[in-house]
Amino acid sequence: QYVFYTDRLTGMKNRTYFDSYLHSNGKKILDKGTALTTIDICNQMDINMEYGRDAGDQIIRFFADQLKNEFGKMDAILVYNGNAQFIVVVQKTDRKDMEYILEHFRLCIDKRELLKECRISYEIGLAETETCDVYSIRGLLSKAYVTQEKFFSE
């Protein structure tokens, strides 16, 4: 099951795992304190074209490693959804904590040494049960995509 549900590039859960998770939990009412964030690398194709696919893979692994560092000690599900898209589901948290963690994540992306000459465009979306008044995982996923903000790392 580990091989089936794990992305080889990032070591994170993969799309197959997340689809199964959505199927199993799609109708469950979530507890207050559940948050979901989406992170999309918008210019991944451009990075691959300009710097090569290996460089693009390095950027994806870097994002994955930073997400593991930020969320690894929490009750979190970390997913690489393919196509330079990440999803993180966190239990027992609130918007303020998530915003703090995501701000730190952004700073790590900005201060990276890896491929410093490469400009990265990415979007982060955040939704959580309390302020969004959404209590399903699919609802949080939709809300997170709608609220995505664009960031640039030079």
Short précis:
Helix content is 47%, strand content 22%. A hairpin with a 2-residue loop joins strand 2 and strand 3 (85-90).
- Main β-sheet, spatial strand arrangement: 2-3-1-4-5
This entry's quaternary arrangement is single chain
- The structural class is alpha+beta
- Alpha-carbon distance between the two ends: 39 Å
Round the mean pLDDT to the nearest integer and report it.
Answer: 94
Strand content: 15-25%
Series of secondary-structure elements, N-terminal to C-terminal:
HHEHHEEHEHHE
Biggest sheet layout: 5 strands, antiparallel
Indicate the radius of gyration in whole angstroms: 15 Å
Q: How many DSSP helices?
A: 7
How many β-strand stretches? 5
The poorly predicted ranges are: none
Question: Per the principal axes of the C-alpha atoms, what is the gross shape?
Answer: globular
Helix content: 40-55%
Helix-strand layout with pairing:
Layout: H1 2-5, H2 15-25, E1 35-41, H3 44-51, H4 53-71, E2 76-82, E3 85-90, H5 95-110, E4 120-128, H6 129-132, H7 137-146, E5 149-153
Antiparallel strand pairs: 1-3, 1-4, 2-3, 4-5
Helix pairs in contact: 3-4, 4-5
Model description:
The structure is a single chain. With 154 residues, the protein is an alpha+beta fold. The protein has 7 helices and 5 strands, in the order ααβααββαβααβ.
